[in-house]
């Protein structure tokens, strides 16, 4: 399921990044959920011409490290995502829909992240 990404408008990116930083520093969600949501948000904002994927995956590592999930060594998230590349792409695509968080599409997207 290949979908064309429409990144956030350049003028709205600073506020969206500020919101993402605040979310990434809030510990009210489990670390894995926070990392997955932050990564999806970053990829949707898509602030750079190139390197958004690498930066988004680095954000996952940063959140895990800050939250104490991986205080020392963590295999690169990109290794796991490359193994299931299409699931990764589909999982990000599912986060870009409008609808209830309890919908079947939302559940399927979450399961792509945690179901492996």
Automatic annotation (TrEMBL):
PROSITE patterns reported in the protein's UniProt record: FIDO (PS51459)
Signal peptide, first to last residue: none
SUPFAM superfamilies named in the record: Fic-like
Domain Fido: start-end pairs: 1-116
Lineage: unclassified sequences, metagenomes, ecological metagenomes
Pfam families: Fic (PF02661)
Transmembrane spans: none
Protein name (record): Filamentation induced by cAMP/death on curing, related domain protein
């Amino acid at each position: 399921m290949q979908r064309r990404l429409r990144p956030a408008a350049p003028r709205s990116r600073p506020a969206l990044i500020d919101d993402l930083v605040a979310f990434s520093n809030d510990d009210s969600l489990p670390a894995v959920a926070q990392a997955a949501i932050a990564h999806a948000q970053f990829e949707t904002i898509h602030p750079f011409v190139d390197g958004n994927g690498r930066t988004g995956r680095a954000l996952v590592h940063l959140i895990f490290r800050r939250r104490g999930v991986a205080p020392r060594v963590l295999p690169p998230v990109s290794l796991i995502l490359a193994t299931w590349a299409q699931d990764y792409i589909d999982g990000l695509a599912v986060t870009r829909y409008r609808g209830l968080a309890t919908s079947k599409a939302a559940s399927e997207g979450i399961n792509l992240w945690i179901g492996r």
